[in-house]
Amino acid sequence: MGCCDSKSEEEISQSKGLDNVCPSCGQKGAKVKFETPKALLNDCCVSKIKDNVDYKWCKTPDCEISYYSSKSDHFFKADELKVRATVKDDSLDVHVCYCFNHTRQSVLDELRETGTSTVIEDIKAKMKDPGCFCETSNPQGGCCLANNMAWLKKAQELVSKE
After folding, report:
1. Burial track 57-68 (b if 16+ CB lie within 10 A, e otherwise)
2. CA-CA distance, 119 to 69, in Å (whole number)?
3. Residue 38: how many CB atoms within 10 A of its CB?
4. How much is the CA Rg of the chain, to the nearest whole Å?
5. Do 108 and 92 touch, CB atoms closer than 8 A?
6. What is the C-alpha separation between 143 and 66, in angstroms, rounded?
7. Edge-to-edge strand order for the sheet containing 65-68?
8. How does pLDDT run across 20-68, given as a tens digit for each residue?
């Protein structure tokens, strides 16, 4: 849509943030690019994605919704994703970096073996070369560094208590 094209009432409502809450938990979500749900939903769900709809990611850990739209009956559940989402699943084998294959367990193992973790430095270096693809690998549709920093802090606390 060009800058001179008229917007529908739904698009105006979305841009004002009036329909930006998850239909299940009522919390505000984060807008994701169209290619994120298209790449990360199971094949059976991809056909249900609508081209002219903005999708949001529900950030609430215990909410069953992954992506939702301004229409309360048009959403996808976390169990419809091809991968388990860091925010929605606290298992150790879940990825904290989808682009470069870091899991909670791999960070924890490195801490136990070496006393330190290079996960943040590794991700930053690889973001430059070969580059990341967060929009199509991370269910949140964006950079994972904040998730990794939070997990690293928690993992360091766990190891220090052992």
Report:
1. bbbbeebbbbbb
2. 34
3. 14
4. 18
5. yes
6. 17
7. 30-32, 55-57, 65-68, 75-77
8. 899 999 999 999 999 999 999 999 998 899 988 899 999 999 999 999 9
Instruction: Quote the tokens at residue 46.
Output: 């991809």
Q: Are 81 and 42 in contact (CB under 8 A)?
A: yes
- Asked if the model's pLDDT at residue 131 lies above 70, the reply is yes
Angle at 95 between CA 159 and CA 60, to 5 degrees: 95
Residue 13, pLDDT above cutoff 70:
no
Domain annotation for the chain: domains and CATH numbers: 16-80 (2.20.25.270), 95-161 (no CATH)
Cβ atoms of 29 and 57 within 8 Å: the answer is yes
Peptide bond before residue 37 is cis, with ω within 30 degrees of 0: no
Cβ neighbours of residue 54 closer than 8 Å, sequence gap 6 or more: 14, 31, 69, 70
Residue of 125, 128, 127, 121 lying closest to 148 (CA atoms): 121
Structure confidence at residue 123 (pLDDT): 94
Q: Does pLDDT of 10 surpass 70? A: no
